[in-house]
């Protein structure tokens, strides 16, 4: 159905926030949409809450298989021309899809937006773009230096999503980043610079499994650099990309209290690109116990 948005909402034990999330999807204005919820084996009241919306929401159930499997399954059931992903604890602004529709009409294959940070945000700003550039067009090389695309902000043409096989369910984390990288290597990316999503942080979320996350980042970078587009990058670009990757893992390690691993990653980053003064500054902060 031309112009229809299929909203894909994976959820596992999401009884606390799923009602507010679905209400924000139902509040979308001036666009046609369907809402598909995939319950990933919840053991709480999630399914009961979703069913309370009646025919406004289509519910599918699967055994606990992970968020990537849930998103891919939901996408396979979608009738829309566009897929819009919404995590079960995030919130959309009412005009989100309409503003992205305008971008899609102007030649973009994937459109993301700025966001509000909510919940346990710590020292993060309320608006994501205050600390993060949000480019559009050919963003491939910039995206390799770190993921600035919020999953719940993305709308993508279904044909493009299917072309690249959806989310990689073999990845432990960062599966969204891997997909955006694959798409951005060959397609035009648009951005709505207005915050149109409220992205929720949870206590302890930053410190969970930081070691495995670091290994997954490295795996994704190695894989993408070995693609035809990745092989076209210059040696300087590759050095900067690896430096940024190690620096991200260094920051995550420091945030989790692992100063030894943090220092090791900062040294890796500086070995790849020693001209990043901010990286030297961050390393000095860790060494001084001020991370």
UniProtKB/TrEMBL annotation:
GO molecular function: hexosyltransferase activity
Domain Glycosyltransferase 2-like, residue spans: 6-130
Coiled coil region boundaries: none
Annotated keywords: Transferase
InterPro entries: Glyco_trans_2-like, Nucleotide-diphossugar_trans
Family annotation (PANTHER family): GLYCOSYLTRANSFERASE (PTHR22916), UDP-GLCNAC:BETAGAL BETA-1,3-N-ACETYLGLUCOSAMINYLTRANSFERASE-LIKE PROTEIN 1 (PTHR22916:SF3)
Name this polypeptide is given: Glycosyltransferase involved in cell wall bisynthesis
């Amino acid at each position: 159905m031309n112009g229809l948005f299929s909203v894909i909402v994976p959820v596992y034990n999401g009884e606390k926030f799923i009602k507010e999330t679905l209400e924000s999807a139902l509040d979308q204005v001036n666009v046609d949409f369907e809402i598909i919820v995939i319950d990933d084996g919840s053991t709480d009241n999630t399914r009961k809450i979703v069913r309370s919306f009646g025919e406004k929401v289509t519910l599918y159930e699967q055994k606990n298989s992970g968020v990537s499997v849930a998103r891919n399954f939901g996408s396979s059931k979608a009738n829309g021309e566009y897929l819009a992903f919404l995590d079960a604890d995030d919130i959309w602004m009412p005009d989100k899809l309409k503003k992205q529709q305008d971008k899609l009409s102007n030649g973009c294959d994937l459109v993301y937006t700025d966001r509000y940070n909510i919940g346990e945000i710590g020292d993060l700003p309320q608006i994501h773009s205050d600390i993060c550039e949000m480019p559009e067009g050919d963003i491939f090389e910039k995206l390799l230096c770190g993921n600035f695309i919020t999953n719940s902000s993305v709308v993508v043409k279904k044909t493009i999503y299917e072309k690249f096989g959806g989310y990689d369910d073999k990845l432990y984390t960062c599966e969204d980043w891997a997909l955006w990288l694959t798409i951005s290597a060959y397609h035009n990316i648009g951005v709505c610079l207005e915050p149109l999503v409220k992205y929720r942080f949870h206590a302890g979320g930053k410190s969970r499994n930081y070691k495995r996350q670091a290994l997954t980042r490295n795996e994704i970078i190695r894989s993408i650099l070995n693609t035809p587009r990745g092989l076209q990058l210059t040696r300087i670009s590759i050095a900067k990309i690896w430096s940024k990757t190690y620096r991200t893992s260094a920051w995550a390690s420091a945030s989790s209290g692992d100063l030894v691993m943090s220092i090791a990653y900062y040294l890796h980053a500086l070995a790849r690109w020693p001209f990043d003064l901010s990286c030297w500054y961050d390393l000095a902060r860790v060494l001084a116990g001020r991370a």
